[in-house]
Amino acid sequence: MEISGKRPPIYGQIRFEIDRAPVSLQAKRNKKDDLKEFILKVLEEAQYFLTGDVKIEIEWHVHEQKRYETDTSADIDNIIKPLLDSLCGPSGILIDDNQVQCVTCSWLDTYDYESEKIYISVNYMNDEFISKEGLVFINVENNLCLPFNEKNPAEVQKIILKQWLNMFSTKNELISHGLGYYDAQGVMPIQRVFHKSRLNSFNILEINEQLKHLNSN
């Protein structure tokens, strides 16, 4: 399925092939880095990030003899984390692997002993994405960040940021008056937040500093 372009496929699934064997979570760092670099090369033409929760399906095609009769084949539970990590970050299609709400992983027999392949399917809501162009994250409150397009006109940016401040303030006020977390969340943006600790590779701006910058121009 098509990965490249300004938006993900409208039918809510990206499926792609990795023409190499997976690596174990216990593998050396360089092996895991090599796999990530290979996968990011496959994903490099995607001009967007998926921003909501996703379901991941992993199919590992490997010869039965390798699985049953050698000690070189990784345990199936140990191949998941390196693959998920390889989808995330500024060059990936996910912001962070805490977006993964569900993951399934299985191996299937292939007659070619020398060749191993991985097929990854990412299932998502088709309107939960953002362009990579102009993307920064805004730390609104308590290290809770939202994706933000700083390429928008200054007045548009100010309107959005002020609205976010109002939403967070209203949520806190409702909770202070005894409303439960889930009910108070009803006044928050549809876009889910990301904790600052999960965004180490991204550009993060403080909301008040960004508003000050916009007002000074």
Note the main attributes of this structure.
four-stranded mixed β-sheet, alpha+beta, single chain
SSE blueprint and pairings:
Blueprint: E1 13-18, H1 29-43, E2 48-50, E3 54-62, H2 64-69, H3 80-86, E4 100-109, E5 117-123, E6 129-131, E7 135-141, E8 144-149, H4 154-176, H5 181-184, E9 194-195, E10 204-206, H6 207-216
Parallel strand pairs: 3-4, 7-10
Antiparallel strand pairs: 1-5, 2-6, 3-5, 7-8, 8-9
Helix pairs in contact: 1-3, 4-6
In total, the number of strands is 10
Helix content: 25-40%
Mass-distribution shape:
elongated
Low-confidence parts lasting 5 or more residues at pLDDT below 50? none
Structural category: alpha+beta
Overall pLDDT score: 94
For the biggest β-sheet, the strand order reads 1-5-3-4
Please state the CA-atom Rg, rounded to the nearest Å: 21 Å
Proportion of residues in β-strands: 25-35%
Q: What's the number of helices?
A: 6
Largest sheet: 4 strands, mixed
Distance from N terminus to C terminus (CA atoms, Å) equals 44 Å
SSE sequence, one letter per element = EHEEHHEEEEEHHEEH
